[in-house]
Design a protein that fits this description.
Length: 401
C-alpha cells in the first residue's frame, strides 16, 4: 500500500474514528443473526420474523444511496457522518427497548439508511484526508468491518457462557458509537472537495468503446451475485452448523470468525496480487469460481472441519473485496460515469441484501441445506457473467500493446 502513512497527518485522530465506526458497522451487520434465539423469544416470532427485520437493512439502504451522496457533497462529510452515527445509536438502543416486530423493522430501516449515509460521508472524507492514497485508505474500511465481524462472535459467546443479558452486545456497540459521535463533533474535517478525482485514474486505452449493455449490465448483475454469495453465508453459517451438523451454538458461531479471518486476509493479499500479478477483472472471475467449488463441497460433504475450512475460503474469496473490485472494473470500463455506474452496482448489491433474508428464510423451512444449494446456483450465474466480462475485456484490449 504505497504512500499510505498516518505520519504527520493532522487528521489522524479523525481517520482512526472513521475506521472504528466501520468496526461497529461490521458488528451491526451480523448482530441480529448471531442473536437469533434471543430475538425470536423477545419478539415472539420465528426465524422468518427475524429475517423480516434483517431485510430492513438492505431496504433502508437502497433508496438513500444517491440522495445521501448529494447531501454529503452539498452539506459536507461531517454532517453526514454525524447523522449516520445518530441512526446507528437509535437502532442499537431501540432494538432492546421495543418488543414490536414492526418497530424493529423500522429500526433496521434506519440502520440501513445510516449505513448508506455513513458510506457517502466516510469514503469521500478518507479520500480528502489521504488524497495521495485514497484507494489504500478506503480498502481499510473493509478490513475494519471484517474485524468487527470477527470479534462479535467471541463477545456473544462470552455473554452466553456467563449467562449474561444478551443485550450487552447491543449496548457495547451503542456506547462506542456514542463516544465516537461526541469526539467527531469536536474534530475538524479536511476541506470538502466534492469533485475530487481518485488518484488511481483509469489509464487503460481500449481498442474500441466498451458496451454498457453487455459488460456494463453483467457487472451490475455481478454486484448482486457476489453480494448474495457472501451475505448468505454470513447469515446462515452458524445455523447450518446447528441444523445440519447438530453442534452447539457456541461452536457454530466460530464459523463466522473463520469467515472473518478469511475476509481480513483477503483484503491485504488481494491488494498485493492486484499490484503484482492480476487485474481486478481477472479476480472477479477467479474468486467466484473458487467460491462455487467451495459451496459445492460444503453442500455435498458437510462436517465440522469442512465448515471451518469453507467458512474461511468463502470469507477470503467472496467477502474480501470482490464487490469493490467489481466497482473498480466498472470505473475502468466506463470512466466518464463513475458516480452513476458505482450507484448502479451498489444498488444491485443493496437489492441482494434486501431479498436474501426473505428468500433464504423460506428455503430454510424445508431444509437449511437448500440455502447452500441456492447460493451455488446464484454463484454459478455470477461466474458465467464474469466469463462474459473477461471475454469482452480481452477483446477490448486485444490490440493494445
Amino acid at each position: 500500500m504505497k504512500n499510505f502513512t498516518f505520519k504527520k497527518n493532522e487528521y489522524f485522530n479523525l481517520a482512526l474514528l472513521l475506521y472504528l465506526n466501520y468496526m461497529i458497522h461490521g458488528m451491526s451487520a451480523v448482530i441480529l443473526t448471531l442473536n437469533l434465539d434471543f430475538l425470536m423469544q423477545k419478539f415472539s416470532t420465528d426465524m422468518l420474523g427475524i429475517s423480516f427485520i434483517i431485510s430492513g437493512f438492505g431496504i433502508g439502504r437502497l433508496p438513500i444511496l444517491y440522495l445521501a451522496g448529494v447531501f454529503s457533497d452539498k452539506y459536507g462529510r461531517k454532517p453526514s457522518i454525524v447523522l449516520a452515527l445518530c441512526g446507528y445509536i437509535i437502532f442499537f438502543i431501540g432494538i432492546l427497548i421495543t418488543s414490536n416486530l414492526t418497530i424493529a423493522f423500522i429500526l433496521a430501516l434506519i440502520c440501513g439508511a445510516s449505513n448508506g449515509i455513513l458510506d457517502t460521508g466516510t469514503y469521500p472524507a478518507l479520500m480528502e484526508i489521504f488524497p495521495n492514497a485514497s484507494g489504500s485508505a478506503n480498502i481499510l474500511i473493509k478490513a475494519f468491518m471484517s474485524l468487527g465481524q470477527f470479534m462479535l462472535p467471541f463477545i456473544i459467546t462470552f455473554i452466553i457462557k456467563n449467562n449474561l443479558y444478551f443485550g450487552y452486545s447491543f449496548i457495547l456497540c451503542a456506547i462506542v458509537m456514542t463516544l465516537d459521535l461526541i469526539i467527531i463533533l469536536k474534530l475538524a474535517f479536511p476541506p470538502n472537495t466534492s469533485n475530487s478525482k481518485s488518484t488511481t485514474e483509469n489509464k487503460t486505452k481500449f481498442s474500441s468503446k466498451p458496451n454498457f449493455f453487455i459488460e456494463g449490465i453483467c457487472l451490475i448483475l455481478i454486484g448482486f451475485t457476489c453480494t448474495t454469495t457472501f451475505y448468505t453465508m454470513q447469515m446462515w453459517l452458524p445455523t447450518y452448523g446447528e441444523s445440519v451438523l447438530n453442534i452447539e451454538k457456541t461452536l457454530a458461531l466460530k464459523y463466522i470468525s473463520f469467515y472473518s479471518i478469511g475476509s481480513i486476509l483477503s483484503i491485504f493479499i488481494s491488494s498485493f496480487i492486484i499490484i503484482r500479478f492480476l487485474k481486478p477483472v481477472k479476480i472477479i472471475f477467479i474468486y467466484p469460481l473458487i467460491s462455487l467449488v467451495t459451496l459445492i463441497v460444503l453442500w455435498k460433504f458437510p462436517s465440522n472441519l469442512i465448515c471451518m475450512v469453507c467458512s474461511f475460503i468463502i470469507g477470503f474469496t467472496a467477502a474480501g473485496g470482490v464487490l469493490q473490485l467489481v466497482l473498480t472494473t466498472m470505473s475502468e470500463l466506463f470512466p466518464n460515469g463513475k458516480g452513476k455506474t458505482t450507484g448502479l452496482v451498489s444498488t444491485s448489491s443493496a437489492i441482494a441484501i434486501s431479498l436474501i433474508p426473505v428468500i433464504t428464510s423460506k428455503l430454510s423451512t424445508y431444509n437449511v441445506k437448500n440455502i447452500v444449494l441456492f447460493n451455488i446456483l446464484v454463484t454459478f450465474i455470477g461466474v458465467i457473467l464474469a466469463i462474459i466480462v473477461n471475454m469482452r475485456y480481452k477483446k477490448l484490449t486485444l490490440n493494445k500493446k
